[in-house]
Structures are given as C-alpha cells and as structure tokens.
Amino acid sequence: MQIPAHQLSAHLAKGLRSLYVLHGDEPLLVQEAADAIRAAARTQGFTERSVFTVAGAHFDWAEVLASGASMGLFGDRFLVELRIPSGKPGKEGAHALQQLAHRAANSADVLTLVSLPRLDKASKTSAWFEALSGSGVEMALETIERAALPTWIAQRMAKNGQRVEAGEAGQRCLQFFADKVEGNLLAAHQEVQKLALLYPPGELTQAQVESAVLDVARFNVFKLTEAALAGQTARVQRMLEGLQAEGVAAVLVHHTLAEDIRNLKRIQQAVQAGRPLPLALREMHIWGVKERLFERIVPQMPAPAMDRLLWAAHQVDGIVKGLRVAAWPHDPWQALQRLAMMLTRQCRPR
Predict the structure, then answer these.
(1) Domains 5-140 and 146-212 share a fold
(2) How far is Cα 37 from Cα 21, in angstroms, rounded to an integer?
(3) Which residues 6+ apart lie within 8 Å of 91 measured at CB?
(4) Number of other residues whose CB lies within 10 A of the CB of residue 302
(5) Which fold has domain 146-212?
(6) Are 313 and 262 in contact (CB under 8 A)?
(7) Are the beta carbons of 203 and 164 closer than 8 angstroms?
(8) Sheet harboring 137-140: ordered strands across?
(9) CATH no., domain 5-140
(10) Closest alpha carbon to 133 in 3, 288, 41
(11) Is residue 345 within 8 Å of 234, Cβ to Cβ?
(12) Element (H or E) spanning 186, and its range?
C-alpha cells in the first residue's frame, strides 16, 4: 500500500499498520515522516523501541529478526526501526526483510519502521521491496524541486499562521526565499521557523523576509544542467557562482554539462536516423525531469547549433585541464560560464 506524504497525518489518525517503509534522499522529509509515525505509535502503547542501522558486510540480521520475535512475549508493544543507508540489504538482508514483511502481516504488537534512501528501479522491483510494500505502508519522500519550492515554503509558513503579501509582490517574495534556500530543505525549514520566532502571525512584507532569511542555498552539478536545459539564465548564473564558492571542481562541472550536450547530440542523431524519440531516450537512460526537457529540446534545436555546442564543450574540456584555447577565457570558471550560457540560450522554450 502506497500513500503520498501529505496524506500521512490522515492515515495515522485512522490507526497504525504494522509496517512502514520510507524511502527518499531528503533527510528532513524522512525525519518528519518517521517522527509522525513514532508519535502515533507512542499514543497507541508502543512504549519500547529498538533501532538497527545496517552497516558493513557482517551486519547481524538474525538479531533484528530475534528482537522482533521475542519482544511480543512480554506483553509490551515495541517499535523496531531498521535503517538501511545504502539501500542495498544484500542476499541475507533481502531474505530477512521478506521474513519481516511476513511477520508484520501477523503481528499487532510489533511495529516495524524501515528507512531507505532513494531507490533505483531494480530495488523497487526486487522481491524484498515488493514484500515490504505489499505487507505495509510505503511512502516515497521525493526531493522538493526548485519549481515547487515557493509553494512548499508558503505551506510551511501557513502552519505558523504567516503568509506573504497577495499577488505578484508575494510571489516575488517567495521566489526570493526559494533562491536563498534552494538545495537545502532543512535550512529552508529552519528559516521558516525563524520567521515565526521573529514576527507574529499574519502577513509578512518582503522587507521582513529579506532581513531574516540567510543565503543558505546549496547547489549540485546535476541541478545546474537541469536549469540550463530549462533555459533558466539567472538561475544558471547563480548556481555557477555557488558551485565555485563551495569549491566544487571545475572539471566535474564541465563533465556534467558536456555529458548532457553529448546525450542531446546522440539522441538527435538517433531521431534523424528514424528512431522514435521516446525509444531513443529510454535507450540512453534519460528519465524524469531530463526526459521531459529532452523531449522539448531535441525537436527544436537545429543540428548546426548542436554541433557548435559540442565543439564548445570540447574546447572547454582543455581549458579546465589547464590548456589555453584561442578566443576563450583562460579562467576555467569563466569558460564554464560561457559554455553554460550557450547551452541555456539554445534550450530556452520557444
């Protein structure tokens, strides 16, 4: 049984299931969901708790199975938490998880909470994960994308009785807030809580938000390429500056940009050769956000423009490795900025 994150409170109000599986790479959301389940468990008499973290090849799965099996003998209700940071339980662990799933279907006195990172397709279709999700409640806690971040911030503020101004002014305020905390959801939550401490419930002005919200944005190179493919010039500029300030290697930024440029070229060639675009994307393992961006970009980008991008990526490859290239900046980050802006301009929606 799978439920979306926003329905967890309503679900818990109706009663607890014996097994919950949380998976996702956003620590704040996983922590909040786990806290809500623990709180509901305490109100229903689960007074004892054991926590196991799977680490190393010699983790004792037998101890996990024995703890849950023996706890029910004493009359108390127990919460067993199992954390698998790698998302890969191994052969022994896979068998143990299937046993846990079977036990959960037949035990009301032991509540099992399994926490996992974001899972790949192979893990989601594995026998152990299907056993867990089939016997309990599964929740995917996805990262809040940049486009959805202003709405998420507004919803968090509303829980504290606060809101921004109505109309365009309020939207600008939320965009400002999102720019300052992008890529750092825990910091975003902390900044919302800070506003609640500084100001009473009610409407907040942009001046109040700007005076309180720190610049705690964190960027990664994969989000940079998504922003470039989306044609978001100002965001690309801001992210490049942030990556440089954080000490990210220029060669890594170039590799990520160049890889997407090469993939665009390969898919464009496949389509020109008669391959259906959806099939070409699947064969190149382009999924999710990038899949939607590529579907828009590939048909609209002229082949000569694609060739210029590919040649520019080749030139910058030498620059970030210490070579000098005529008509290009000698500084690696300036060269990366030019390359990123070339890609961004070509990918703007038309």
Answers:
(1) no
(2) 11
(3) none
(4) 10
(5) Helicase, Ruva Protein; domain 3 (1.10.8)
(6) yes
(7) yes
(8) 46-53, 77-83, 110-116, 19-23, 137-140
(9) 3.40.50.300
(10) 3
(11) no
(12) helix 185-198
Q: Going residue by residue through the chain (350 aa), what tens digit of pLDDT does each one get?
A: 888 888 999 999 988 998 999 999 888 999 999 999 999 999 888 888 889 998 877 888 888 888 766 554 555 788 889 999 988 888 899 999 998 888 887 777 889 999 999 888 888 899 999 999 988 999 999 888 888 999 999 999 999 999 999 999 899 999 999 998 988 898 899 999 999 999 999 999 989 998 888 877 788 888 899 999 999 999 999 999 999 988 889 999 999 999 999 999 999 999 999 999 999 998 888 888 889 999 999 999 999 999 999 999 999 999 999 999 999 999 999 999 999 999 999 999 87
Nearest Cα neighbor of 205 from 257, 170, 245 is 170
Domain boundaries, the chain: 5-140, 146-212, 221-347
SS3 321: coil
CA-wise closest residue to 348 among 232, 222, 225, 223: 232
Rama region for 139: left / alpha / beta (φ>0; ψ in -120 to 50; rest): beta
Token pair 């309020």: residue: 170
Fold of 221-347: Zinc Finger, Delta Prime; domain 3 (1.20.272)
E-strand ranges in 75-201 read 77-83, 110-116, 137-140, 162-164
DSSP letter string, 15-63? ---SEEEEE-S-HHHHHHHHHHHHHHHHHTTEEEEEEEE--STT--HHH
Q: How many residues does the chain have?
A: 350
